[in-house]
Design brief:
alpha+beta, Alpha-Beta Plaits, 2 domains, three-stranded antiparallel sheet, 5 helices, 6 strands
């Protein structure tokens, strides 16, 4: 029996057929449907939090990250993922309305501490803005906010003028009614 097993081992060793994978040296091709580490396309993210709400393991939470788009994401909140809790189900990817969260083929996640496998937006983000782009976006957001405040002030002023005009017409109308009433008597 022992010789039979040794014969099989020798046959496999000399046939050139790969029995085990040489993992760190040779990484195998992964299938297209592989669910690995998440990738956040920061230019698309609107910070809605749909990914955090749908996560069954509650491993995604929104955290502040200043290098995002203040025009699309006014709160500058982006997903942080705890891979110690993630089961790679893909619900967060499916539920994302902006399609900014995708799953890559990167599967190696390791660390010495639990905090090492909690990935912040900076760790998973791609397409980061340059400092110049961030300054331009901040200026654009400031101008949009000023325009919004100006329009709100104009609307309030118009509403006030309309109310005052209605009150004047009401006074005139009540004065005319009183004059008609006196005439009728």
């Amino acid at each position: 029996m022992v010789l039979k097993n040794l014969k099989m081992t020798f046959k496999r060793a000399t046939s050139g057929v790969e029995v085990t994978r040489l993992y760190p040296e040779k990484i195998m091709d992964l299938p297209d449907a592989e669910r690995g580490v998440h990738v956040l396309e920061i230019r698309k993210c609107i910070g809605c939090g749909a990914c955090a709400r749908i996560c069954p393991n509650d491993c995604i939470k929104l955290v502040a990250y200043s290098r995002g788009n203040p025009v699309k994401n006014k709160k500058l909140q982006y997903p942080q993922i705890d891979y110690g809790r993630c089961m790679f189900c893909g619900l967060c990817v499916d539920d994302c309305p902006a399609s900014c969260l995708i799953m890559s083929k990167q599967f190696e996640i390791s660390g010495w501490n639990r905090e090492d496998i909690i990935y912040d937006p900076e760790d998973i983000a791609v397409g980061l803005y340059s400092d110049q782009e961030l300054a331009e976006l901040a200026e654009e957001a400031r101008k949009a906010e000023e325009e919004k405040k100006r329009k709100a002030a104009e609307a309030a002023k118009a509403k006030k003028e309309k109310a005052a005009k209605a009150a004047d017409e009401g006074d005139k109308g009540s004065g005319e009614k009183a004059a008609k009433k006196k005439k009728a008597e």
